[in-house]
Amino acid sequence: MRVIIVGAGVLGTMHAWHAVSRGHEVVHLEREAAARGASVRNFGLVWVGGRAPGPELEAARRARVLWQEIAERVPALGFRASGSLTVATTGHELAVAEAAAGGSEAAERGYELLSPERTREVNPALRGDHLGALWCRSDAQVEPRTAQAALQAELGRSGRYTLLTGREVRDLAGPGAVRDDHGQVHRGDAVVLCTGAWLGGLVRELVPDLPVRRVRLQMAQTEPLGETLTTSVADGDSFRYYPAYRGPELDSLDEAQPQPPTARDHRMQLLMVQRADGSLTIGDTHEYDAPFSFDTAEDPYEHLAGVASRLLGRPLPPIRRRWAGVYAQCADPSRVVHRAPVGPDAWLVTGPGGRGMTCSPAIAETTANELGW
């Protein structure tokens, strides 16, 4: 087959990976010079622990296997099976961690409840005061700013992959075909649109009432920490944002320990991941109501620095850069992704939300299976 894939973020690139791996030819179109959306503006987390039971967890677990397999072929992904620690600093947060570690899915998710001493053994950089942590051995990470380029370079070595950048697709030009803004028609046996948060233009024409919303976030990267952060790290507020932790203990946390005003107003949690150069990616906020702010607010960064410093037991390194990003999320939270036909031999795959980096290999594999590649 000859497959036309639109969008060179992680979701589109993983669709290209599966197509080429199954012996097909791929023409890959990207409207920017390279991916610039949520695929590069994220933590690079392969985050299994907090996923909702059912299809979401199944997709995350399958994706975790695929990421490791792909990384054996593409070491430049920077894949690290580092696990994660969600650190509890209060009794209510610890109760949520205890409930998760004692739940029926604990082994499936790789959970283990750690004492303060054991937490510091697993991640010696966490020298702040805390009551313990929920360790998720299944979690991992890659380097988000370079992962797509590394995958595309490996695909190029197949001889069956062509990446064309600076090409915005304007319309479907017949079964299995698209026309770009250069007037060129690209013909194949199937078209897969992985347009991310770009929901206007052709996407709006094809699906005027697309059940997908956009979400804005703020993140930052620090200077190098100067020591190894052996796991990714989350604070107790993260329990509030991941469906795996729902239950009476989380209800008690919400009632007895409201978030600080800045965290509440910006719908915040702390996630902290060390990059290959020793710097830290920290975040994040969530903004759901469009039109989104065009600037970045400073108080979330001050809050994140304070929380991170308390967990580390030392000042957070200076922030090197700040950014905002937007991702597409299915309006129905029970759906991992929106996947539907939009024309003859053409499909739209979008809306994984904050699960895109984690689940993209499994999402693309499912597309390939369903389309009979």
UniProtKB/TrEMBL annotation:
Belongs to the DadA oxidoreductase family. InterPro entries: FAD-dep_OxRdtase, FAD-dependent_OxRdtase_HpnW, FAD/NAD-bd_sf. Residues 2-369 form the FAD dependent oxidoreductase domain. NCBIfam families: HpnW_proposed. Signal peptide: none annotated. The keyword Oxidoreductase applies. Keywords: Flavoprotein, Oxidoreductase. The keyword Transmembrane does not apply. GO terms for cellular component: cytoplasm. Its cofactor is FAD. Transmembrane segments: none annotated. Gene3D superfamilies: D-Amino Acid Oxidase, subunit A, domain 2, FAD/NAD(P)-binding domain. GO terms for molecular function: oxidoreductase activity. This is FAD dependent oxidoreductase TIGR03364.
